[in-house]
Design goal:
557 residues, alpha/beta, FAD/NAD(P)-binding domain, seven-stranded mixed sheet, five-stranded antiparallel sheet
């Protein structure tokens, strides 16, 4: 260790408040440190002292009741910037403990967790901070969906004696309010947390130059561990002529300033259903087109049927089993040429939305140089610990093409950070993941479908309860939907819960608990469910395994 005055950054574990900062400051002062700055949120102290006395400083911190960690020599009296760090059990040629590429749900969750381990963290972002969910996904789409729901209810009030009406939609004003909400949440839930937790942010495109180095804006960064959390973007199918047409994606559709008179939608997944119904309720004539023979083909048939009936009843046109021949544009009109049931058809619309899935954002990362293997769609391949083929590089969230939900990404980010810098060996368990589509009524599911359970060898019991048997739906005068439970006939354990209902996304959490913790039909039947709630439907569906609920009194068990 070089002697003479040096600027030191010392990681300190165990600090939890400003009192801790004062205790550490006094301890360092006693051994001759000067210009001391202590930050409990960052878990570090910076100070100047003779480099030969660094071990004295560590002992002083230990005596004060805290655990000293790695020490970085920031500069010496000459102002030189050494590229090494001093610590127990650490290599000495890294700039950071963890470098996170991306700034969405997985990235921020990982950064916060890594900081709690006392790690020095840098986050790299090439675009807007916050990732998909807050900027162009969950937040903007759900607030717009709520607006469209209010518009629809105003025009389609089911209660006699009430007079409501809906006028023309000012989409520009709605989108402006949406953008304000997005900006507020981005600031409070993402940007402000950078200083709160004390990690660094570096702007620019990250590109691996070797297995432990990235280059960003002409600067090279070396980190002990990396987390790839770059998310995914809308994918575009290979349909002749599509690339020459002015089409919309889920991102650009939420930026429109006027409601299109006609909207054609290629695809029928959750994004297509949500945005298709939203624009229909705001005033568009909507046509949904898909290749499979039914909506939501991965779901139970009862779910698909309930959703199709609801959308058709509202006036949305559904075309299934289509083959896309070509797309062309004439003026402002887009024409989608199809074959449906052997017959040629043409769908015309002023706006065309492409909603056919997501593509991982990996093309610019130069992962080959890092020794990171990717799958056929460009997704980063990971093991159960979220490690890639390079054991020092992890990946989490949509970039792995796992379940495309922000709560999954955030969970994976935490697990990845624990494993990468916390020394843990946590496995990611995604066997019980709830999925919600925010149509109206909403679609929510968790666990196995009936077909899935049978394919795994279960003898299956099922219960299908129409919503006209649920008192909450009756008093709402809206009985569109159903509840389906899938159970193991031998143990009567609940294997799957599937709903099409108002507030299905809220109800499904009870289904998550039932599936995750192995509750049985009898467990659900024996619970007290509050009357006139949609959640009561779960108990009624459980009763339906053995009874006809139509012949029970209210609240009967």
């Amino acid at each position: 260790m070089q002697s003479g005055p040096q600027r030191v950054r010392l990681v300190i574990h165990g600090m939890t408040c400003t009192d801790c900062e004062r205790h550490v400051t006094k301890a360092l002062q006693r051994v001759g440190a000067e210009h001391i700055s202590v930050d409990f949120r960052r878990g570090e102290a910076t100070f100047e002292m003779d480099g030969a006395r660094l071990e004295e400083a560590k002992r002083a911190v230990t005596k004060a009741g805290y655990e000293p960690g790695e020490a970085d020599i920031l500069d010496d009296a000459s102002g030189r910037q050494p590229s090494f760090s001093v610590g127990v059990g650490h290599s000495t040629d890294f700039d950071h403990d963890l470098c996170i590429i991306g700034s969405g749900g997985a990235a921020f969750s990982a950064a916060i967790q890594a900081v709690s381990h006392g790690s020095k963290v840098v986050m790299v972002e090439r675009g807007t901070i916050g990732g998909t969910c807050v900027n162009i996904g969950c937040v903007p789409s759900k607030t717009m969906l709520r607006a469209s729901e209010i518009q629809y209810l105003a025009a389609h009030n089911p209660f006699p004696g009430l007079r409501t009406s809906a006028g023309t939609v000012n989409l520009r004003q709605l989108v402006g309010a949406k953008d304000e909400l997005v900006a507020e949440l981005r600031q409070h839930k993402y940007v402000d947390l950078i200083d709160e937790y004390g990690f660094d942010l570096l702007r620019g495109e990250a590109r691996f130059t070797d297995p432990s180095t990235i280059e960003v804006a002409g600067r090279k960064i070396r980190a002990r561990r990396y987390l790839i959390a770059t998310g995914a973007s809308p994918s575009v199918p290979d349909i002749p002529g599509l690339s020459d047409v002015d089409y919309l994606t889920s991102t650009t559709a939420l930026q429109l300033q006027e409601v299109p008179r006609r909207l054609a939608v290629i695809g029928s997944g959750y994004i297509a259903l949500e945005l298709g119904q939203m624009f229909h309720r705001l005033g568009s004539q909507v046509t949904l087109m898909q290749r499979s023979d039914r909506l939501l083909r991965a779901y139970d048939p009862e779910v698909s049927e309930a959703v199709a009936l609801t959308l058709s009843f509202e006036g949305i046109r559904l075309l299934t089993g289509v083959t896309y021949e070509r797309v062309e544009q004439h003026g402002d009109v887009k024409r989608v040429h199809l074959t449906v049931g052997g017959q040629e058809r043409v769908v015309e619309a002023e706006a065309l939305l492409v909603a056919t899935g997501r593509t991982p954002n990996t093309a610019a990362l130069n992962l080959q140089a890092a020794g990171v293997q990717v799958g056929s769609r460009g997704e980063v391949l990971v093991d159960e610990y979220l490690r890639t083929s390079n054991p020092n590089i992890y990946a989490a969230g949509d970039v792995t093409l796992g379940p495309q939900f922000v709560y999954v990404a955030a969970h994976e980010g935490t697990v990845a950070a624990d494993n990468a810098v916390g020394g843990a060996e946590r496995k990611v368990d995604l066997t019980v993941v709830p999925a919600v589509t925010f149509t109206s009524p909403a679609i929510a599911t968790v666990g196995m479908t009936e077909a899935m359970a049978r394919s795994k060898g279960y003898e299956v019991l099922i219960s299908v309860l129409p919503l006209d048997a649920v008192p909450r739906a009756l008093v709402n005068r809206d009985t569109a939907g159903m509840i389906k439970l899938v159970a193991d006939a031998r143990t009567r354990r609940i294997l799957g819960v599937h709903l099409v209902a108002e507030n299905a996304g809220d109800v499904i959490y009870a289904g998550v608990l039932a599936v995750k913790f192995g509750l049985t039909i009898e467990d659900l039947k024996s619970t007290l469910a509050p009357y006139l709630t949609m959640a009561e439907g779960l108990k009624l569906a459980a009763l339906t395994f053995d009874k006809d609920v139509e012949k029970l009194s209210c609240c009967a068990g």
